[in-house]
Design brief:
By secondary structure, this protein is α/β, with parallel strands linked by helices. It is 42% helix and 15% strand. The chain is built from 12 helices and 9 strands. Strand 1, helix 2 and strand 2 form a beta-alpha-beta unit. Helix 7 crosses helix 8, helix 7 packs across helix 9 and helix 8 packs antiparallel against helix 9. It is globular and about 70 Å long. The relative contact order is 0.13.
């Protein structure tokens, strides 16, 4: 009990992991690009699950808000539990500037180290494992192995997206990326689906997040036209601009507290807390379908040098997760999907996303240049 309380009351959980298994050499980052990506994808798997029960899986404490894993092969990763805080603090924690500070501390000489005699010494936590607890641990390990085999990550990066062309035409970069994601999904599945983009409402007291719904009537019209060879280029450009403008409007509304997802969630929780019957709205099939976010997305500012990934919504097995950052002419992203769904494959989605980003770049270049103020 005391050991559990020590972990539960801690601010941060730090685990020292063993190195990479033999299937991936520690120096594979010096090999061709595809091997570097294999290394990064494996690092995501190891971070999320510890690879397997007899490796690092026992080093994961999933209900802690912040976990940091330091591996003996030199990689550093971490997990964040979202209910305690939003993603921005964790991005700051993982920023290269923080890594530089860690290296500065680690390379100090003995004369620079402060006096630590008054600090409490490190203590080994004691555990009493009964047969039933050991059996529960074994079952948890088997479940985690299943989770590991089910989840697939893919890191990618693409260049040549012409930031100058977007800037000269006053195209919002995030809207550009979101429309490319919509086009990528339609390119594979031939339909539009509910899509979620996280938006901070930190400008309000106790504000957390709101949902930007990236799929719209305007985006649906564009993606259909974009892949229709009978639609003129002029028409495609016009529909693209309308979809981009509407995405900006929707994002501003969500940021300013004018979204509806959190408000409806609040109403549902009020009914639950007051013991009232659940309003019929929340049982309506149209409403339920609107909440099946098969595409979960988030822009990660300062992504370069900090690679973040997240699983799709666990209750939507045919879903994707797309975390991305636009940096100059480049786009860096981490995709995920579930292996046990034959309809989804994040590697295939990455190929469609690359093509869609290039397609939008070409269409943006056909827009008139905005006049300078």
């Amino acid at each position: 009990k005391e050991s559990i309380e020590a972990i539960q009351s801690s601010i941060i959980f730090v685990a020292l992991d063993s190195g990479l298994p033999e299937l991936i050499a520690p120096n594979c980052t010096t090999k061709p690009v595809e091997h570097k990506f294999d290394f990064l994808n494996f690092c995501f798997q190891r971070c999320f699950t510890g690879t397997k029960m007899d490796c690092n899986a026992g080093n994961r404490w999933f209900d802690k808000a912040v976990q940091v894993f330091i591996s003996e092969d030199g990689t550093v990763s971490g997990l964040m539990e979202h209910s305690a805080m939003d993603g921005t603090p964790y991005v700051i924690l993982g920023h290269p500037s923080q890594s530089d500070e860690c290296m500065r501390i680690l390379t100090r000489t003995a004369d620079d180290v402060p006096n630590v005699q008054n600090l409490q010494s490190v203590q080994r936590l004691k555990w009493n494992f009964t047969p039933s607890i050991r059996q529960a641990i074994q079952k948890a390990g088997e479940f985690l192995d299943w989770k590991r085999d089910r989840l697939k990550f893919h890191y990618g990066e693409i260049s040549g997206l012409d930031k100058v062309a977007r800037r000269r035409r006053k195209i919002n970069t995030d809207s550009f990326a979101q429309l490319a994601i919509q086009l990528a999904y339609y390119r594979i599945h031939g339909r539009t689906t509910a899509s979620h983009e996280s938006c901070s409402t930190a400008q309000f007291k106790l504000g957390r997040t709101e949902t930007i719904r990236s799929a719209s009537i305007q985006s649906d019209a564009f993606v259909k036209a974009a892949l229709d060879p009978t639609t003129s280029v002029e028409r495609k450009v016009s529909l693209m601009k309308a979809a981009l403008d509407f995405q900006v409007k929707t994002a501003h509304q969500a940021r300013d507290g004018q979204g509806f997802d959190r408000h409806l969630f609040g109403l549902r929780m009020i009914a639950l807390e007051l013991g009232l019957p659940e309003p019929e709205l929340f049982k309506d099939e149209t409403f339920l379908e609107s909440k099946r976010f098969r595409v979960y997305t988030s822009q990660i500012p300062g992504f370069k040098g900090v690679m973040l990934g997240v699983a799709p919504f666990h209750s939507i097995k045919d879903g994707y997760s797309v975390l991305y950052a636009m940096s100059g002419n480049d786009c860096h992203y981490v995709l995920s999907s579930f292996n046990d769904c034959p309809e989804t494959d994040c590697v295939r989605f990455a190929s469609a996303l690359d093509q869609s980003l290039h397609d939008l770049t070409s269409l943006v270049s056909l827009l008139p240049v905005s006049a300078k103020l």
